[in-house]
């Protein structure tokens, strides 16, 4: 299944994507209040059939991040075996940081380039959405806790990221990142290691790698994160980006207003955003 969060006539909604139409699941009797609550219940029930009519055209809604209100977004860096790392020892642990929910926007919505920086960068990633919560989850049981997958652009403001050894400022500018366009449920992707990630800027491929090249794979990450914090349904794990992002290039290639970024993952889809000006929260 493909699950979306969206706005319909300015009101929040969520539903099941069938072709190019949405079946509103939030309008069913006894519906869960949001998509993360729906995923928790549906995951526990083994993804039962959904009895709702797909009558809303996808192009008539505003897509939101699939989980607009995650309890937490946990992110990792330095997580791929690739030529750029040749000769370097593999890390014992990943570099970990967090993002806030309001640092993201949805598919088709403008990314917000901060006017306080000219070092705004892109990072294509696979995002894992937790479907079943847990604390101290063994790696051998971790995949049973996955609700689904989506694409993620970990938009990064590099100079602010490097103000100190802590990444928080550079990773959390308002609407500087995106994820979506939808969640593909885990039952449709039994083996995520077969997926391929590709990031394009203005149609030019900048990043490409197989998910099987991860140093810390999905079960390891779930076990590691759940050791220090209980995971809950709707939590998002951003699994890291390969080389090829702007600051890894010579000379650096940072984003400008009007640039189009596409993060494509096989079997999931394409997350597409255009860079716009800075978004100031009201």
From TrEMBL:
Leader peptide range in chain numbering: none
SUPFAM superfamilies, per database record: FAH
GO molecular function: 5-carboxymethyl-2-hydroxymuconate delta-isomerase activity; metal ion binding
Matches recorded under InterPro entries: FAH, Fumarylacetoacetase-like_C, Fumarylacetoacetase_C_sf, Rv2993c-like_N
Span of domain Fumarylacetoacetase-like C-terminal: 72-275
Domain Rv2993c-like N-terminal as annotated: residue spans: 1-66
EC number of this enzyme: 5.3.3.10
GO biological process, one term: small molecule metabolic process
Protein keywords: Isomerase, Metal-binding
Keyword DNA repair: no
First-tier enzyme category under EC: isomerase
Family the entry assigns: Belongs to the FAH family.
PANTHER family: FUMARYLACETOACETATE HYDROLASE DOMAIN-CONTAINING PROTEIN 2A, FUMARYLACETOACETATE HYDROLASE DOMAIN-CONTAINING PROTEIN 2A-RELATED
Protein name according to UniProt: 5-carboxymethyl-2-hydroxymuconate Delta-isomerase
Taxonomic source organism: Rhizorhabdus wittichii (strain DSM 6014 / CCUG 31198 / JCM 15750 / NBRC 105917 / EY 4224 / RW1) (Sphingomonas wittichii)
Source lineage: Bacteria, Pseudomonadati, Pseudomonadota, Alphaproteobacteria, Sphingomonadales
